[in-house]
Design brief:
Layout (H helix, E strand, L loop, with lengths): L1 H16 L3 H4 L9 H4 L17 E5 L7 E2 L12 E4 L12 H6 L4 E5 L7 E2 L12 E4 L9 E2 L2 H7 L2 E4 L1 E3 L4 E9 L5 E4 L5 E6 L7 E2 L4 E6 L1 H15 L4 H13 L4 H10 L6 E4 L4 E6 L6 E2 L6 E4 L3 E9 L11 E6 L7 E8 L9 E9 L10 E7 L6 E5 L4 E2 L4 E8 L2 E6 L1 E6 L2 E6 L6 E5 L1 H17 L7
Antiparallel strand pairs: 1-2, 1-3, 4-5, 4-6, 7-27, 8-30, 9-24, 10-19, 10-23, 11-18, 12-14, 12-17, 13-16, 14-15, 16-18, 19-22, 20-21, 20-23, 21-22, 24-29, 25-26, 26-27, 28-29
Helix pairs in contact: 6-7
Length: about 475
């Protein structure tokens, strides 16, 4: 009945004024027909509300989630509706006017279109003439969820990714110094007074092999003990006596092969040969021909450099990421383009007061002797656990210094800030130890805009007076 009444009133108005009477008086304008005055259903056409400002995008005329940056038409030839700046001022979706009437959800209240802490129980306009936005039942959350219109999502470039599990690691690049393996350093010394008869042609820096002659000495105590051993042997002494004489020679540092020569030849040599105890390089030579050496004097200092140490200085803030057995790559300036591999064998149990760094020891095989003591080394230590962990791209984490937040994508333009606890960072990813699970979807682009909107929303809700809150 209402439709018939409206149609009748419209026909009566047209009959009274004459369909062409008014328009005929307007120069150059044709008279409108009934199709322009009535829609297909017979209801008078209502002028579509227009916004203010420049056109920012075009939307499907039926309000469907279809948008275009340039003018466009639907499949049936209807033009997309131009959306101006004044019509798109909030992150919230703005349902069509007719859809609001047909919506089964109840309108709880109306909020300020500019996000101000102002609500109204009935429709109203703000000081600029903009309509208050209705908040339906189910949309009044606790202030943590932000709803973003689809058009806003397209313009701001919001992008999200699924949370997965991966191995997170990074390289800790620190300086280091090549050092001798303390277990491979040896000295050549006598345990009694000795006279140096001859020194081999060996100087500091030379390489020697195990068993190579270093010097020839005469030691009275060794000669006396050797003579006693021969006396016991020649007289057919008891085993205990022979054992005692042999033990005295061993206590004086005479090598086992020299003792065997005395027993075989039944002669005590006037001088004894002192040989290198191991392979290595000569670090010190403190002996010359004819000198007298006291017990314990260091005649030679040798070092085996087939295996060598690299001591790296790891800053205190990186120390937690370094673990025993971690892979290490080492480069030295004297070997450009060549890298050596090793593993962390020891983390020293103290932090330097001045440097706030801890020394980390890496053992490196050095068969060709290319690494020399006190060389500078550039050390790269691999960090991270061997097992995959929950991780997100670095861009997904908003780090304020006091808290770490990610934006959880809940679908349909709804986003929720989520506080998380982070772990290791490396290779573009951050470990999440608490706050997310595998399969969640997080925002990785333009997330700071959503976080800013969420913080503003929470702040405005906190400033809203009690009487103004619905």
């Amino acid at each position: 009945m209402k439709r018939i009444a409206l149609t009748g009133l419209a026909l009566a108005a047209i009959s009274a004024a004459g369909v062409g009477g008014y328009w005929a008086g307007v120069r150059g304008l044709p008279a409108p027909g009934l199709r322009e005055l009535f829609d297909a259903a017979g209801i008078p056409a209502v002028a579509e509300p227009t916004g203010t400002g420049t056109v920012i995008y075009y939307q499907d005329p039926d309000g469907k989630p279809a948008y275009s940056a340039t003018p466009r038409q639907t499949e049936d030839g209807r033009a997309f509706r131009a959306v101006r700046a004044g019509e798109d001022v909030s992150f919230e979706d703005k349902p069509p006017v007719m859809a609001e009437v047909a919506s089964p959800r109840r309108v709880l209240y109306y909020r300020n279109p500019m996000g101000l802490p102002d609500t109204s129980p009935v429709p109203k306009k703000d000081s600029m003439g903009m309509d208050y936005i209705p908040v339906h039942e189910g949309e009044d959350d606790d202030g943590t969820v932000v709803k973003v219109s689809l058009g806003k999502l397209q313009r701001t470039g919001v992008r999200s990714e699924l949370v997965g599990r991966r191995v997170v690691g990074r390289l800790v690049r620190v300086p280091g110094m090549v050092q001798l393996d303390e277990r491979r350093v040896s000295v050549v010394a006598t345990r009694s007074d000795a006279f140096i008869n001859e020194v081999a042609d060996v100087t500091t820096g030379d390489r020697v092999t195990k068993g190579q002659m270093l010097l020839r000495i005469y030691a009275p105590d060794i000669a006396t003990a050797g003579a006693q051993l021969l006396t016991d042997l020649n007289s057919g002494g008891r085993d205990s006596a022979l054992g005692g004489a042999r033990q005295r020679l061993e206590n004086l540092g005479l090598p086992p092969e020299a003792i065997a020569d005395i027993e075989r030849t039944r002669k005590v040599p006037l001088s004894m040969i002192w040989r290198a105890p191991s392979d290595g390089i000569v670090l010190e030579r403190n002996v010359v021909d004819g000198m007298k050496a006291a017990p314990g004097d260091v005649l030679f200092r040798l070092a085996d450099i087939s295996t060598i140490w690299v001591l790296a200085d790891v800053p205190e803030f990186d120390l937690g990421a370094v673990r025993l057995g971690a892979p290490v790559t080492i480069g030295v300036r004297s070997l450009p383009g060549r890298s050596l591999s090793g593993r962390v064998s020891l983390i020293y149990p103290q932090v330097g007061e001045a440097t706030r760094a801890t020394k980390v020891r890496i053992e490196i095989a050095n068969p060709d002797g290319a690494l020399l003591p006190n060389m500078y080394a550039e050390v790269e230590i691999g960090t991270g656990a061997a097992a995959p962990v929950v991780a997100v791209p670095d861009d997904a984490v908003i780090d304020t210094g006091t808290r770490q937040v990610v934006i959880l994508d809940r679908g349909e333009g709804r986003f929720e800030p989520r506080a998380v606890k982070i772990g290791l960072r490396g290779e573009g990813f951050t470990e999440i130890r608490d706050g997310l699970a595998e399969g969640d979807r997080v925002v990785v682009a333009a997330n700071f805009l959503i976080d800013a909107e969420s913080n503003l929303k929470a702040a405005l809700r906190g400033l809203t007076p009690a009487k103004a809150q619905p």
